[in-house]
Amino acid sequence: MSLRKGTVARYAVGSVGTGGFGTLPGLVLVYYLTDTLGVAALAAGLIVTLAKVWDVVVDPVIGAASDRDRAAHGTRRRLMIVGGLLLPVFFLLTFAVPPTLGSLAGAVWVLVAFLCAATAFSLFQVPYIALPAELTGSYDERTRLLTARVVVLTVAILAFGGGAPALRGLVPDEHAGYLLMGAVAGLVLGASLLVTAGVEGRARRRDADPAADGGPQGPGADGTPQSAEVATPDTPTPGVLAHYRAGLVVLRTSPPFRALLSAFVLQALATGTMLAGAQYVATWVLDDEGAVTFLFAALVGPAVVFAPVWGRAARRIGKERAFAVASGVFLGAAAALVVMYWSPGVWVYAVVAVAGAAYAGLQSLPMAMLPDVVSHDAVTRGPGRAGTFSGLWTAGETTGFGLGTAVLTTVLATTGYVESRAEAVVVQPDSAVLGIVLAFTLLPAALVAVSLVPLRRYPLRRTDIEAAHTAARTEEHRA
How far apart are CA 71 and CA 430, in angstroms? Predict the structure, then answer.
């Protein structure tokens, strides 16, 4: 059965929050630390990386808790609501360092606030990623659902990546500008998360009354009957170590997930490095701090248009082949941008636009492949692991983006980048400018090239997913 437009739209709204939180800290947080608070590049990178390492620790726990919540209460939305309420508070605090604090105290402030913000975000993100496999069992409907999500995601990236720095610039004082940006962005993030938190409950009410939506929405969690995951009050609560063991079991027993996750993490590392370097490219290569808005417009504008194109390509040639094509286009565009070191100019925006068209595929296609992996695993090995899959996926994604920041700051430190306090005027050495360009171009291109190796080992095709869906529907009717 087709998903209702309202269900698709409400699920997609969550990407306003995921796109904003995934983009804005990566874009401006390191720059805020190095060029406003005067924190050394390596220390700034360590702060962001520690927050991502924390994600790796906590996401599998949240995934297992989300699975238990769904088994016991029939929904994942409770954790999503808590995350939506807490994220705006801690996001604002991340950019609210008092100007009187020294660099060390400011760095500690940002670390603590950002760790709390990252935890709040994971409370939403982990169950959010598990939902597509539970909202529909259809191969093409999942592509439709995730394509809509990526359209909203790319618009959110454009709005936050271009609008937030512009909002920051409305106030002459840098500290006040970041505070304004953090307050407005935090409110928008929280609102989008809370809107999406109820999508699962609405879908379940329609399942209970098929006439309200033209028929049933399909099987329950992981493409299996709803009754398959109902817990009893006597079900023991697994310990923390059990959550990590469950994650290791998933990695060991699901070759499709290993291949897809490996490719996605490498590409998250590539795009995370580019994202963290965009503000530095605007300031020190294009000689205009405000040019970051135009870089994001060039990247995300084409992505909005091309997300549906990649969806159609996936239906025609398969998701895995379309993903490989998108990766190749992105690789070529990123490598071509290295010429900006010798000849910066408006041509940069045109090449970034090509990368943006491919970036839409890099986002939508693996996300559309993940629920296929989850449902196939549920049919072949049994249901109940969707939260574990999503926890590992979120941990891998945040690790990739976090290490991207670490890669950039390591390059900056190695090439002699000069940090500064607010309003101070500095001149960067040529070696630092070259490092910025390499981190934005050849390094991401090389990482995407390596990601094609595990992608070649991804084994699932349309026929595998359709067979799994048919088996799940048969089991549902028997139940």
Answer: 58
